[in-house]
Amino acid sequence: MDIIFYHPTFDANHWISLLQRQLPQARIREWRSGDNGPADYALVWHPPVEMLRGRTGLKAVFALGAGVDSILSKLKKDPDLLPAGVPLFRLEDTGMAEQMQEYAVSQVLHWFRRFDDYQALKLQAKWEPLADYEREDFTIGILGAGVLGGKVAESLVGWGFPVRCWSRSHKNYSGVKSFAGREELSAFANNTRVLINLLPNTPETVGIINSELVNQLADNAYVLNLARGVHLVEDDLLTALDSGKLKGAMLDVFSREPLPAESPLWRHPRVAITPHVAAVTRPAQAVEFISSTIIQLDKGQHPTGQVDLQRGY
Ligand SMILES: NC(=O)C1=CN([C@@H]2O[C@H](COP(=O)(O)OP(=O)(O)OC[C@H]3O[C@@H](n4cnc5c(N)ncnc54)[C@H](O)[C@@H]3O)[C@@H](O)[C@H]2O)C=CC1
Ligand SMILES: O=C(O)C(=O)CO
C-alpha cells in the first residue's frame, strides 16, 4: 500500500515515522511537486491541486483536521482537487475534544466566578466582593452537538450547569436538553447565558451568530466562538457588547486570520482572543485514527469519519 502525505507546516518525517509504526507494510512518502507516483491513500491539509488531480487508484483522502471547510471551498472552485468518487475522511476527536473541554470549561468558570469583573476592579485598585452568580442563571447553549460539541456538553454537565445543545437532529446526551433545526433555534437561544459555537462552516451556518440570535439570549450573556470566524458577524457582536446585551466574548477564530491589527476586537476590553488554538491536531492520536480507518477500508468495512460532500461536513 502507498500513502502520500502533505501538510504545509507539520513535520512530515515525524508523521511518517508514526504512520510507519502503525502500518509497517505501507510505503509512505512526503508528497512533493511533480510526484505522480502511485498512492492508495493521501493525507492532506491545504493540498495543492496538482497533488490529487487526475490521480487513479486512490482509495481515500484524509483531511488532517476536524473541519473540512477549506478543502471543500477549494473543491468548489476547482473540482479536480479531489478525484471524483474518492471518499474524504476527517479527524474525529483524536484528542481535540479534550482540548475543547479544557477551553470551554475554563472560560465558563472564569465568567461564572466573575473573574472578568474582578480583573476590571483590579485595574481600578478596588477591593469589592461581588454577589455570586447562581448556576440556574447560567444556562450553557452549545451550537453544534457533534463529536466536539457533545463532549463539551458532557463536561459542563459535570460542573452542574444547565446545558442545552442545538444540532441538525435531536441528540440524546445525558443531562443535556436537545434542540434541533431552525424551527427550534429561538427556543434554544432563549435564556441561554453562555453561547458556545462548535458548528461546522457550511452555507447554512455562516453568519448564524448575528444580532437576531444574540438578542434572544439572556441579558448579560457571553459568546465563546470555537468553530470558525465566519459563523460570527463581528459588527453585530461589537454592537451587542457596547449596548450591554452581551457581557463578554472569547474568540478563537476569526473571519480573517491572522486577525488584522486594526480590528477593534483586539482593543475591546470585554473581548478575549486566542489565535486559533482551541484544539490542535495531535499527531499520535490522529495517526491512530487514520491507520485504523485505513485498515477498516482495506477490509471493505465502513468506518466513521467520512465527510458528506453535499452537506459540507
Ligand atoms: N478552533 C479550533 O481549533 C477548532 C475548530 N474546529 C471546528 O469545530 C467544528 C465541529 O467539529 P466536530 O464536532 O468534529 O463536527 P461534527 O460534524 O461532529 O459536528 C457538527 C455538529 O453541527 C451540527 N450541524 C451542522 N450543520 C447544522 C445545521 N445547518 N443546523 C444545525 N446543526 C448543524 C451537526 O448536527 C453536528 O451536531 C469543525 O467543523 C471545525 O470547524 C474543530 C477543531 C479545532
Ligand atoms: O481541525 C480543525 O478544523 C482546526 O481548526 C484545527 O485547528
Automatic annotation (TrEMBL):
Key words, A-Z: Cytoplasm, NAD, NADP, Oxidoreductase
Q: State the family named in the UniProt similarity comment for this chain.
A: Belongs to the D-isomer specific 2-hydroxyacid dehydrogenase family. GhrA subfamily.
Q: Which Gene3D superfamilies match?
A: NAD(P)-binding Rossmann-like Domain
Name of the protein described by the UniProt record: Glyoxylate/hydroxypyruvate reductase A
Main EC class the enzyme belongs to? oxidoreductase
Name the EC number(s). 1.1.1.79, 1.1.1.81
Query: Start and end of every D-isomer specific 2-hydroxyacid dehydrogenase NAD-binding domain?
Result: 106-278
Give the matching HAMAP family: 2_Hacid_dh_C_GhrA
Q: Could you tell me which species this protein originates from? A: Franconibacter daqui
Name the gene.
ghrA
